[in-house]
Amino acid sequence: MRSKRAHIIGAAIALIAALVLAPAAHAQASPTGAPSGADRGSASDESPRPDRRAVAGQVARTRGQPEFIALGPAAEAALTANALLAAGATQIRRRDYPGLGRVGQVFLLPRGLSLAQAQALLSTAAPRTRFDAHHLYGYAGGAPRVYAPALVSGGAGCRLPAGRTVGIIDGPVDRGHPALAGARIDSVALMGDARGESPDHGTAVAALIVGEDSGSALGGFAPGARLIAVDAFSGMGTRGRTDVELIGAGLDLLLRSDVRLVNLSISGPANAALADLLSAAAAQGMVMIAAAGNDAGRVGWPAAAPEVIAVTAVDAALHPYRRANTGPEVEFAAPGVDLWAARKGGGAYVSGTSYAAPIATALAARLGAGRTLTTEQLRRALRASARDLGPAGRDTQTGWGLVQGSGC
User: Fold this and answer.
1) Is 123 tagged catalytic?
2) How far is CA 402 from CA 120, 194, 393, in A?
3) At what angle do helices 375-385 and 353-367 cross, to 10 degrees?
């Protein structure tokens, strides 16, 4: 199995090198105690463009594009369609509401026509017709509670310039998720087929870093950055598990791809071989941020390694996550309890240090970690701005305190 795996890993690295070094594009039997996902199972174009980010994740979609709906009297239906079609829109379907005296028509807008422009167009062509995004509605459970942006100051929505790159070693990422539809993500599965592994964990981690959502419910903390997502979990035969060999392959691939800031939302036991891999990566200038783990015990690896910045989770009231590992290795805290994050079908509340770490990683990207800041310089910068929690100074539960956003 190992020889076959080595062949697959070598082939994957060779094939992905050209992809991840190219200009950004949308690419499409583990031993007991092996590292696992830290919380797997907790649940410049001048022309105007449609306001897709304003509705991403909240509207119906066709062929990956957001739908827009025109609703008006039957007498204006043809006028509406003619006006929008002449502007380059595509009509998807029509539905009559004879009892209401209305006709509904669903359209896709072209790249050069925004929602506001379409509304202005119809205000003249069909003044009694209303045109808007084709929003989705769910059961009346209330809007998601989003608290993380306010806690870390500067929060989500700080857009990074092209050229900033972040890497993650995690599970598979659903690049078709609405929160990631506008993000620049290159991905590779080290063991091939990802169908056997749930994309929930990797998708949540990716969206917390580069998610695109103007409503901020699923917006990332470093939108605009390019993400290189290495799937080290698929193909293992045991869900939610990876091993030292594949973590090493992920680190090597990212280094070869000139990625110097990496999020590791994984946790497991101390391991001498893993320690050597982390030390070698750090010697090449890689800045690594990892989740402390959720065993209510000692800080797990790779977070416990001296070359790695260990991050724990706190809730909206700044209380430490009850299951988070503790110890002198903990350096910083970030929101990670009942956090609204990207999951299959939309979003869900998740808890764990796995979700705190990518927030810290995103803020590190905003500061230039891996480009202009070394690990030690990043530590000093984060410490200088951190909000102290618990006992004065550094403590074993929340380290130097809550990370704060800056660098926009």
Assistant:
1) no
2) 46, 35, 12
3) 100
Q: Tokens at residue 294, please?
A: 């959720």
Supply the DSSP string of 298-339, one letter for each residue: BPPBTTTSTTEEEEEEE-TT-PBPTT--BSTTEEEEEE-SSE
The CA-to-CA distance between both ends of the chain, in Å, stands at 47
User: Are 268 and 34 a contacting pair, CB within 8 Å?
Assistant: yes
- pLDDT given for residue 237 in this prediction: 74
Q: Which amino acid is at 26?
A: H
Task: Tell me whether residue 17 is exposed, middle or buried, using C-beta atoms within 10 angstroms of its C-beta: 0 to 12, 13 to 18, 19 or more.
Answer: middle
Active-site residue, 354 included:
yes
In the predicted model, what is the mean pLDDT of residues 294-316? Answer: 96
| Rounded (10°) angle between helices 244-256 and 2-21 | 20
With bands split at pLDDT 50, 70 and 90, how would you rate the model's confidence at 236?
confident
pLDDT score for 38: 67
Least Cα distance to 327 among 353, 351, 350 occurs for 353
Rounded CA gap, 337 and 402, in Å?
Answer: 13
**Looking at 109-247, which runs of residues are DSSP E strands?**
130-133, 165-170, 184-189, 226-231
Per-residue pLDDT of 254-283, as tens digits, reads: 999 999 999 999 999 999 999 999 999 999
| pLDDT band at residue 43 using 50, 70 and 90 as cut-offs | very low
Q: Is 214 a catalytic residue?
A: no
For residue 88, the one-letter residue type is G
Cβ neighbours for 331, distance < 8 A, ≥ 6 positions apart: 309, 310, 311, 379, 382, 394, 399, 400
Catalytic residue among 36, 39, 170, 186: 170
pLDDT at 161 over 50: yes
Q: Which two tokens stand for residue 245?
A: 């060999």
User: Which position among 186, 198, 201, 257 bears the catalytic label?
Assistant: 201
In sequence order, which ranges of 152-237 are alpha helices (DSSP H)? 200-210
Q: Which amino acid is at 219?
A: G
Task: Give pTM, 2 decimals.
Answer: 0.71
Catalytic entry in 36, 187, 234, 354: 354
Contact (Cβ atoms closer than 8 angstroms) between residue 104 and residue 95: yes
Between strands 65-66 and 61-62, the pairing is antiparallel
